Amino acid sequence: MRRLARLWLRRVPWLPRPVRIALALACAAGSLAVVALDASRAPAQAPRPGPAPAAGTRIDPGLVPEGRALFVDGCSSCHGFDARGIPGVGPSLFDVPPGNADFYLRTGRMPLDYQRDEPERGRPAYGAREISALVSYVASLGPPGARIPRADPARGELGEGFDLFTEHCAGCHQVVGQGGLTIGARVPDLQSSEPTDIAEAVRMGPYLMPAFPESQISQSQLDSIARYVLYTRDPQDAGGWGLGHIGPIPEGMVAWLLAGSALLLVARLIGERTTS
To answer: Distance between CA 222 and CA 20 in Å, rounded?
Structure first.
């Protein structure tokens, strides 16, 4: 770029030097824009499918007594000793799908330190066997045969997942799954979410999130959403500058700052200084 600029300055001596400098900068910027456009139009390499869903929490009737003992010790103060809930404190766990209990326990959102706290992702309070026991106990309170929702990103389509996530989820989670704020809640980012977490959240609608039954989002669509969410962890920024994928507003501010600085530089080069 510097060589082209020097050649330009030498071959148009009839123009004032500031004008030649400004034109050289404009040509360089145009060349960079063309290169960026070509890169953005290049076909992106298809991302590798995410990992297949792990076995995760298991529902075992033999673990129900152990789960009942854990429930009385750690959960009954909010949900009652009979698991029918306490008004104003905790809901009943009868007829609750086992995926709900698994989601809250495995992601560390339960138990809460204070009943009015927003459930947020953290370190699980129980080990894998204890979670399976608690989930098995909750499953025993509902209809027989209930299962934990699963998602298999390897079966999903990335483009479909992007469309579905944009339509149903991006309004709160941002299109790149970085989370944000909404009325009455902090929206979590999805960068630590595993396929089972995504499936459970879609089906149950944790906290203020709406639930999406299979009549609204089918299993194949759920697989595609899970694949897209995993893709947002390391998206391809062909022809662009990701800036950490922190969202369109701060990214736009950076773009305006860079453009404004370039305009000031051009104005300084072609302008004339006046003295009072």
So the answer is: 57
